[in-house]
Amino acid sequence: MILTKHTEVRIQQRCIPELVLDLLLQYGEVEHQHGGTDLVYFKSKSFTKARKHLENMLKEFDKMKDTYLVRSKQDENNIIITSGYLKGSPRTKTK
Fold this sequence. Notes:
single chain, alpha+beta, two-stranded antiparallel sheet
């Protein structure tokens, strides 16, 4: 998903998390508009589907308590090098 500067400002002003935009794109209803744009929004049924998806994700998230990732410090783009599950102290993974 690519956000315009306008979108970044508006979602910040309106306190709309990017996760909601992802859910709209995945589950929302699409209404075609003039000029080659689409209005995407939740109807009751699509909102319920998105909510169920989130509930399932939270159940799975509970199992991810001991995960870790290693990222590069050389770049501000958060280049992920690897990921796994911690066994013991997180400090033992960085040495």
